[in-house]
Description:
homodimer; alpha+beta; BirA Bifunctional Protein, domain 2; five-stranded mixed beta sheet; 39% helix; elongated
Amino acid sequence: MNVHNLxxxxxxxxxxxxxxxxxxxxxxxxxxxxxxEPLETPALEYEELLMGKYGAEGDKLMYRFTDxxxxxxxxxxxxxxxLSRVVAQYGEKLVMPFKRYQIQQVWRAENTQKGRFxxxxxxxxxxxxxxxxxxxxxxxxxxGKAVEALGFPNFKILINDRNxxxxxxxxxxxxxxxxxxxxxxxxxxxxxxxxxEKVIEEMISNGLEKSKAELILKSMQNQQPTxxxxxxxxxxxxxxxxSEQFIFFPTLARGLxxxxxxxxxxxxxxxxxxxxxxxxxxNNLIGMFATRQIPAVGFxxxxxxxxxxxxxxxxxxxxxxxxxxxxxxxxxxxxxNAVATFAKLREENILCELYSDSNAKxxxxxxxxxxxxxxxxxxxxxxxxxxxxxxxxxxxxxEQKTLSIDEVIEILK
Amino acid sequence: MNVHNLxxxxxxxxxxxxxxxxxxxxxxxxxxxxxxEPLETPALEYEELLMGKYGAEGDKLMYRFTDxxxxxxxxxxxxxxxLSRVVAQYGEKLVMPFKRYQIQQVWRAENTQKGRFxxxxxxxxxxxxxxxxxxxxxxxxxxGKAVEALGFPNFKILINDRNxxxxxxxxxxxxxxxxxxxxxxxxxxxxxxxxxEKVIEEMISNGLEKSKAELILKSMQNQQPTxxxxxxxxxxxxxxxxSEQFIFFPTLARGLxxxxxxxxxxxxxxxxxxxxxxxxxxNNLIGMFATRQIPAVGFxxxxxxxxxxxxxxxxxxxxxxxxxxxxxxxxxxxxxNAVATFAKLREENILCELYSDSNAKxxxxxxxxxxxxxxxxxxxxxxxxxxxxxxxxxxxxxEQKTLSIDEVIEILK
Lengths: 413, 413
């Protein structure tokens, strides 16, 4: 039997799980501080709701099957289609504008050889129901504040407007055909990753003339911000974002076809694996089930990349394990005293753990505390019990002191 | 198209989701305070690992299918089989005794007409690797403290030892055959729910003589605690549990066949829908993939029932929405001032929200604050801007005061 987790799926053992919890708490707090509220949707949806919403690739990568009641169902593939369903289904029950965040797993049958996971956490944050520069700016600031809350002081928000590409399309000098625009956008989107030459190569390989490809790239790089972007930049400053924290980036395209206005990405200084957040305005998506246009703006944090970047930058607190002291048990006869000490420390709200086996050797108990990163151990043998004292051992310095229970409490508090 | 969530699956809109988050945080903190550590396992596992582990009923209710790579997979049905897999797979990497908690969704194709859900949260907490009265007692106390942390002062822990049923089996007067024992246990387990007469009826309908059924029930009710239970009761008292918080309950059976010693359930005074937590010792389960016996003790909280009981007892804080003030926008011209106020309040760490549309009528903005349960609204029209003051409106009393920004900050802090 294959006693193993599935490829592309991960177990998170305590050390990892604690880190994830730490991040999720920080992110929730940051989102909440702007008035975003939590939403949870089921792991399974009717297949017909999801099919075709993510293109042919999405249909292929989706986990979908026939359930016991002969319904065709599919596992959550993203959180935007479920959000659209919720908006259509609950209508008036939702407070509009609907500012919601959603932090749940999604499942995609990705090629794991590319280092991708088949189960991963998405952290989405969106404002549904308004199409204003204010909501655009607030979304950008919320994304920045979430990244900041994780401990990154130096990040840069790259900002663009999808309409810049439409301006490109209507530029009479360039004579771009409608069918060429997606090809151009997809190529330019890779500029940061692959550089100018390769972007031009890609456009050429997709049927554009060399001179035209060069001209397009040059015009893109010289683009000026749209009126809307100018308003957004003004608001960002008023909201307290520093000028070095954001930049107009006319060649930022973002792959997804559904953006209709603002697009942005966040990069962390020194972290080269890619952007850690991305989003924008998408006015034609959320209404898909509601049969009317419902504007929206939002972003997703790249949870795994952020975790990776936090590791690289040592941003996790050294002791996420919060037990301060292990109460060891010297032998069977001292069990009762150990339990009393445990009760006493708990009463004083000192985070303590009681070793669960009075037959275990002291060496094993000390190793346990070391492995769990617990800083102190209390030892109380027959001598100490008779003298009504405790030994408090500091596992870092390996020092130990004989103290009264009150002195121990004072030190640990 | 069926724009709806699947039957038995739930969306949690902000008000509900906040409550769930509140509970999960309390539960995590309670578990952590005993040194239990978080574990997360994937939503999908190899089908062969799960099949047969929950009986024929489990196989039937499990969501399982063939994935895109032609693997037979199954969705998480509980958290005990995944824990067993983790223990077998990671071995030495885990700190033993392994004290872990796990709070994740599980999926079961239940009959929804019985008010059951097909997706629900399980909250498991277990100590793996020791078979000691200490770990039994600690588990019970941890369960009690979690229930207490949610705000229930009056709960009762019903405690029994599965070996009491074995003693019954070897009672020479009763002459119970091995094959009859599971039938008897299953009947007695229902005592609290259906009463004495029906329990006896059930035993009779399963082939026992009436006099024998009566004698069995009577002997059960007169059982004395085992030696192990006596030790556990002593430890519970030493750990600070009050004597009215737990009781020896010789007819408590708990349906599951896998318990090997201690069994317990927690009931909340005045809450009649059933126990809110249950668990016990199960020494023959966790080793299923490790090919050796690995003792374990643990429990699960009934998350949905606890939420239900908290609602009944008004135990949720009145304002889980944490925004203190909505900064409204009087009109387009005052947008800039509203944004400046927003930045200023954020700087002072006051939880505030900026309305995202400067074209919305004031009435709509006030309604928004009301719906989101935000206690204050700041209004600043052209007059106020000229006089450099703000109006602070209390939405509960409907009172409003004209104040300087510093006065507003003082009030909101």
